[in-house]
Amino acid sequence: MGGPQLIEVQGLTKRYGKTLAVDGLSFVVRPGQVTGFLGPNGAGKSTTMRSMLGLDHPTSGQVRIDGRSYQDLPQPLRHIGALLEAKAAHGGRSARNHLLWLAQSNRIPRSRVLEVIDLVGLTSVANKRAKEFSLGMNQRLGIAAALLGDPKILLLDEPVNGLDPEGILWFRTLMQRLAAEGRTVFVSSHLMSEMALTAEHLIVIGRGRLLADTTVTEFIERNSRSFVRIRTPEPERMRDVLTAKGIRVEPGADGTLEAVGAEAATVGEVAAANGLTVHEVSSQKASLEEAFMRLTAQAVEYHAEGQNR
Questions:
Q1: Which one, of 140, 175, 226, 207, lies nearest residue 36 by Cα?
Q2: Residue 35 in contact with residue 12, Cβ under 8 Å?
Q3: Whole-angstrom distance, CA of residue 153 vs CA of residue 35
Q4: Quick one: how far is CA 154 from the chain centroid?
Q5: CA nearest to 290, candidates 211, 190, 220
Q6: Is-contact 120 144, C-beta < 8 A?
Q7: Sign of the four-CA dihedral 87, 15, 52, 107
Q8: Which residues contact 174 (CB under 8 A, 6 or more apart)?
Q9: CB atoms within 10 A of CB 18
Q10: Number of Cβ atoms within 10 Å of the Cβ of 38
Q11: CA dist., res. 92 & res. 114, Å (int)
């Protein structure tokens, strides 16, 4: 697999009438890792992904796939495999025939159809019509279509919707294996817990603009509040001795204390040195979901009643 294997978004802007869906967006998706694409509803994720595949034409800016626009790729399924809509298959076609016509249109051997059907676990229903499939089965068929050309680049929008826990684990393992082979894997999802396990790198957008382009670990560290939870029968003394050491202490839930930005070992050493009794000293790290909510709080298009605006 030669070539740059990159997705390059350069100054992408897309307007629909008076609505600015994407606003000067620039980033690069690189091979060898799973890159998660995150953003609140209305952030411009779908528009960006559609623009990558030439389905939407940018108002300005450009997207390069393997150094070229999607329209200029010969046999595009061999370059980039995409899943944007789970039920893209014609309902009257069987899974096998749906994949077969895609293969024929891109000069992909018939044998590859059987390979991807087996890979996604649809062998037993390969001759069943797509309209009889569950959402999860349609997702697997869409993933099979994306993998059909053995592409160097994968672009998948909400690929685990409808999958059961076993299916989600299968998908996670598959994406990480493909990335480890040197492919470029770009996945959009609202399931933050799954993105935290699947992705190594994140592109986060809000209101069409880039908010973050970093590793998952760095993203959580930069956009979260870490603290040490302390449970002690002497909360006032504990607060006093920690404050004297320059550690900020805040009240926590159920009578606990929270030493903000401190290390658990430091708290334990201070407690021991001052003869304090402690029942719990534990580091609390934010989840990807908490970090995401903190970063994108001002970029959410729709808020539930009573939610901070």
A1: 175
A2: no
A3: 11
A4: 13
A5: 220
A6: yes
A7: positive
A8: 119, 143
A9: 5
A10: 25
A11: 19
Let me know how long the chain is: 309
Residue 68 buriedness (CB in 10 A; 0-12 / 13-18 / 19+): middle
Q: Are 40 and 299 in contact (CB under 8 A)?
A: yes
At 203, list the tokens. Answer: 């592109």
Complete DSSP assignment for the chain: --S---EEEEEEEEEETTEEEEEEEEEEE-TTEEEEEE--TTSSHHHHHHHHTTSS--SEEEEEETTB-GGG-SSGGGTEEEES-TT-S-TTSBHHHHHHHHHHHTT--HHHHHHHHHHTT-GGGTTSBGGG--HHHHHHHHHHHHHTT--SEEEEESTTTT--HHHHHHHHHHHHHHHHTT-EEEEE-S-HHHHHHH-SEEEEEETTEEEEEEEHHHHHHHTS--EEEEE-S-HHHHHHHHHHTT-EEEE-GGG-EEEET--HHHHHHHHHHTT---SEEEEE---HHHHHHHHHGGG-S---TTS--
Question: What's the chain's average pLDDT?
Answer: 91
Q: What's phi and psi for 195, nearest 5 deg? A: -60, -35
Q: Most distant CA pair in the chain: distance in Å?
A: 76
Amino acid of residue 44: G
- CA–CA dist 39, 204 (Å, integer): 6
pLDDT score recorded for residue 301: 55
Write out residues in the chain with pLDDT < 50, as ranges.
1, 302-309
HSE of 209, CA atoms in CB hemisphere, 13 A: 7
